[in-house]
Amino acid sequence: MRARRAARERCSADKLALLRRLAQSTLLGGLPETRVEQSWNEQVFAKLLDYRTLLSHSALPFHVLPKNAAGARRFDDFSLGFFGLGEHTVLGTAELKSPGTDLDAPQWTGNYKGTTPVEQALSAARGHGAACRWVLVSNFRELRLYDARSPDAPLATVADLRDVRNPGSSSELGPNDLG
Fold first, then answer.
1. Are 76 and 41 spatial neighbours (Cβ–Cβ below 8 Å)?
2. Which CATH class is domain 2-177?
3. Higher pLDDT, 163 or 67
4. What is the structure's pLDDT at 18?
5. Could you tell me where the beta strands, DSSP code E, fall in the chain?
6. Does residue 61 have a cis peptide bond before it, meaning omega lies within 30 degrees of 0?
7. Cα pseudo-dihedral 114, 116, 121, 122, rounded to 10
8. Is 63 exposed, middle or buried (0-12, 13-18, 19+ CB in 10 A)?
9. What is the pLDDT of residues 141-175, one digit of tens each?
10. Amino acid 135: pLDDT
11. How far, in Å, are 44, 45, 103, 119, 157 from residue 50 at the CA level?
């Protein structure tokens, strides 16, 4: 019992150290989204939140699928669900933006046509079908989780990496909450 508790406490301390390192990183502010996203996904979703990524485990299923098709010529930044066992089940989709990006501001570059990052993520969720309930939108500091099944897609929770102070602070976004 004591050994297991000590191991859990070490794991929690390691996760908090990772969060602090990510929150204090000056690299994030100077790089575009495409240079940051896959490393960030691996650090936050595999190491911190215990999701299985494509290469983080030797067993199936894995939970994070990068650049998943969400309709014709549309790919999300990654999907959360159950993958690698034949048919994929997408339970959530993510839209990542460059560090510091205002997640509520309309974007006019590319094909965004004035949609906000939140609207872009909700559009991707609709492209994944009815099983896709959750939408995660982030600028690598703030993580927002929306319920895509509700008509007005209410904000379910917000986490700011700079504000996480204790081991339980990040548990709301872990793989046990996918369903």
1. no
2. alpha beta
3. 67
4. 66
5. 62-66, 78-83, 89-96, 134-138, 142-147, 155-160
6. yes
7. -80
8. buried
9. 888 999 998 878 788 988 887 776 655 554 444 54
10. 94
11. 8, 6, 25, 27, 18
